[in-house]
């Protein structure tokens, strides 16, 4: 305190800094915004084909099969990215898939799955994906293939009849369309 009994500038600053809410709220908001921005950045980055290719390109056939498929852009059509097919849209489901995918990254890093043994692991991995597609009634397929992108009137008769009866037969897209983007895998 100075001669007049008033607090000095330093004392006033120290008093203000001691107030947890006065300092805690701006720091908390800053950390929350930075955390949300980092989280969103990771979600966007991990949904890019370049992210997927960084491991799968080393697996020999996956990327090449995709690039040869109708889902890869030919410059005239809109491409379906890896995440369009393999990452669910609902937030909770997306987080579950991304968390489970950490297991795949781990196995790649420790060498459990390599370019040399990828094809022997591939049937089990493919079956796991097909099971997920069946569980959610091929929701990712249906997210794009609807309306004008799935006009039954424009389909050949056989395809139109099969698509009209798919629900009655208890089937979903992946039951007939395995091997559309990646080569069909034979499960033994």
Summarize the structure in short:
The protein has 188 residues and is mostly helical. It has helices at 9-18, 20-45, 49-56, 62-67, 82-86, 91-110, 118-135, 139-144, 157-165, 173-177.
Tell me, what's the shape? elongated
Judged by helices, strands and strand pairing, the structural class is: mainly alpha
Question: Roughly what percent helix?
Answer: 55-70%
Indicate the mean pLDDT. Answer: 85
Low-confidence stretches: none
Instruction: Please give the number of β-strands.
Output: 0
Radius of gyration, in angstroms, nearest whole number: 26 Å
Beta-strand percentage range: under 5%
**Number of H- or I-type helical stretches:** 10
Distance between the termini: 85 Å
Main sheet, how many strands, which sense, barrel? none
H/E topology pattern: HHHHHHHHHH
Looking at this protein, list some descriptive labels.
mainly alpha; single chain; metal-binding; 188 residues; cell membrane
Description:
With 188 residues, the protein is mostly helical. Helix content is 60%, strand content 0%. It contains ten helices and no strands. The chain has helices at residues 9-18, 20-45, 49-56, 62-67, 82-86, 91-110, 118-135, 139-144, 157-165, 173-177. The chain is elongated. The termini are far apart. The chain crosses the membrane at residues 21-45. Keywords: Cell membrane, Electron transport, Heme, Iron, Membrane, Metal-binding, Transmembrane, Transmembrane helix, Transport. Belongs to the NapC/NirT/NrfH family.
């Amino acid at each position: 305190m100075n001669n007049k009994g008033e607090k000095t500038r330093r004392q006033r600053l120290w008093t203000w800094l001691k107030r947890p809410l006065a300092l805690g709220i701006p720091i908390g908001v800053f950390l929350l915004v930075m955390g949300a921005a980092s989280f969103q950045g990771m979600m966007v980055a991990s949904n890019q084909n370049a992210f997927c290719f960084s491991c799968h390109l080393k697996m020999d056939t996956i990327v090449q099969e995709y690039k040869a498929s109708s889902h890869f852009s030919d410059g005239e059509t809109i491409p379906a990215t890896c995440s369009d097919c393999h990452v669910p849209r609902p937030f909770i489901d997306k987080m579950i898939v991304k968390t489970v995918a950490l297991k795949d990254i781990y196995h790649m890093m420790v060498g459990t799955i390599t370019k040399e043994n990828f094809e022997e692991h591939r049937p089990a991995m493919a079956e796991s994906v097909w099971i997920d597609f069946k569980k959610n009634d091929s929701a990712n397929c249906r997210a794009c293939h609807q309306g004008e992108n799935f006009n039954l009137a424009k389909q050949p008769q056989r395809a139109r009849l099969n698509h009209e009866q798919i629900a009655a037969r208890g089937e979903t897209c992946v039951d007939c369309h395995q091997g559309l983007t990646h080569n069909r895998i034979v499960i033994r």
